[in-house]
TrEMBL record:
The chain crosses the membrane at residues 37-55, 75-98. Residues 97-124 form a coiled coil. Residues 57-118 form the Lipopolysaccharide assembly protein A domain. This is Lipopolysaccharide assembly protein A domain-containing protein. It comes from the Bacteria. InterPro entries: LapA_dom (IPR010445). It comes from Abyssibacter profundi. Pfam families: LapA_dom (PF06305). Keywords: Cell membrane, Coiled coil, Membrane, Transmembrane, Transmembrane helix. GO terms for cellular component: plasma membrane.
Length: 129
């Protein structure tokens, strides 16, 4: 087998390489555009389902919190519940992100200390025993 037949992809001439990268970028842009369209369609669908849910749940509900009593449409209380859950989940995820950032900072400090120790060990002279 000849070496010329074992060419690496990195040995492609510049015009061919630029043509390949342009087609890849175009494909990525098309995928991104399709993703945006699908996201908009999903949001419109969720909005329509929410409106349908609001129209079907119009009866008034009384919420008793032991110290106060509130009355309102069922969909209002469902939205309030959703917002409370979103706030709680954001708080939980923020705590997790903060913990992970502290862990990254601690591990980066450990890596820096170990690299300094390794550098010092490499600079030590070797003595015969």
């Amino acid at each position: 087998m000849r070496l010329s037949s074992l060419r690496k992809p990195s040995l492609i001439s510049n015009p061919a390489r630029s043509c390949v990268s342009v087609s890849t970028e175009t494909a990525d842009q098309q995928r991104s555009a399709v993703g945006r369209v699908l996201m908009v369609l999903a949001l419109v669908l969720v909005f329509c389902l929410g409106v349908a849910l609001a129209f079907t749940n119009t009866e008034h509900v009384t919420v008793d919190l032991l110290v106060a009593e509130f009355s309102g449409p069922l969909i209002f209380w469902m939205v309030i519940e959703l917002l409370i859950v979103v706030v709680i989940m954001l708080a939980v995820s923020a705590l997790r992100v903060a913990r992970l950032k502290r862990q990254i900072k601690r591990q980066s400090r450990q890596i820096k200390d170990q690299e300094a120790e390794l550098k010092n060990l490499r600079n030590l002279p070797i003595h015969d025993v």
